[in-house]
Specification:
alpha+beta; eight-stranded mixed sheet; globular; single chain; two-stranded parallel ribbon; 283 residues
């Protein structure tokens, strides 16, 4: 069973779906295709293999103009709370990435959600599309009990920067970000699926011996990170360019198909995403 996000319009229904799938031993997957961006997969691998030591803190941001810019009438459902399930459901992708990369669950949460852009221009009629769906979400989070972090999802950012995810640990740091400007993106793919910039991974690891022998002032270490090459093993499909939405979708479907054929558990599945429903309830 492949399901888009969120799993359902409320947690009770999501729990029923989860229980039914578990009872039938079904393979499941939910459409958080950003999970399959190669740089994100490698970030999770490095964190969980100890590259940064023990994780201490993180910051995750996602900024887009999706809820403030003019939209056609057929997109009106996006802005209606009864059609989106949970308030803040558009932050589910970010919550999923935080937990997947850290390899741990959210244990405490403090949240603020607002509707900051209740109207946007209707490109079909010249009028306005009104909405009551949350478009800005800010979270303070604890993950795995003591990893502290903040997460912002804003859909009212003109010229938004997309994803930026930083994690700091006892022995280093990692940062996932789309740093290229649109002028550097490939525009040859057409309006249906132009590239939107490829996520890149940056990081640095501390040498304890070097720091003990010749300590460096912390100010001189700021931004002393480098781009990390992403191993080819994190790219499962050919015929797509990184940065295309279709590339991440193809990666997700490939993984789900492999799980069905081989009997392996693919992720994010109902077991992963039911947790997000409960987090959004708490928020």
């Amino acid at each position: 069973v492949y399901c888009e996000l969120p799993m359902s319009v409320n947690t009770a229904q999501a729990q029923e779906m989860y229980d039914e799938a578990k009872a039938r031993n079904l393979r499941t997957q939910v459409g958080y295709q950003h999970h399959f961006e190669p740089a994100s997969l490698h970030m999770a691998e490095l964190v969980q293999s100890g590259f940064i030591g023990k994780p201490l803190s993180f910051s995750h941001g996602f900024v887009s103009g999706a809820y403030i810019m003019p939209r056609p009438g057929h997109r009106e459902w996006l802005f209606q709370s009864q059609d989106g399930g949970h308030p803040g459901y558009r932050s589910g992708q970010s919550l999923q990435r935080v937990m997947a990369v850290l390899g741990a669950d959210v244990t405490e949460i403090c949240a603020d959600m607002r509707v900051l852009a209740p109207t946007r221009r209707n490109t079909d009629t010249g009028g306005e599309i009104e909405g009551n769906q949350v478009d800005n979400m800010n979270y303070l989070l604890r993950v795995d009990g003591d990893v502290m972090g903040m997460m912002q999802t804003s859909l009212t950012g003109w010229f938004g920067t997309g994803t930026r995810f930083e994690i700091y640990g006892t022995e280093g740091m990692l940062m996932l970000a789309a740093t290229d400007t649109p002028e550097n993106w490939d525009k040859t793919l057409g309006d249906g699926d132009p590239t939107r910039g490829m996520l890149k991974l940056y990081g640095a690891r501390v040498s304890a011996e070097q720091m003990q022998g010749g300590p460096i002032a912390p100010e001189r270490l700021q931004r002393a990170f480098r781009e990390i090459e992403i191993p080819a093993r994190h790219t499962y499909v050919g015929g797509f360019q990184h940065g295309q939405a279709a590339f991440e979708v193809a990666q997700a479907w490939h993984t789900f198909a492999a799980g069905i054929r081989g009997g392996a558990v693919s992720s994010p599945n109902f077991s992963d995403v039911i947790k997000i429903h409960y987090i959004l309830d708490a928020a």
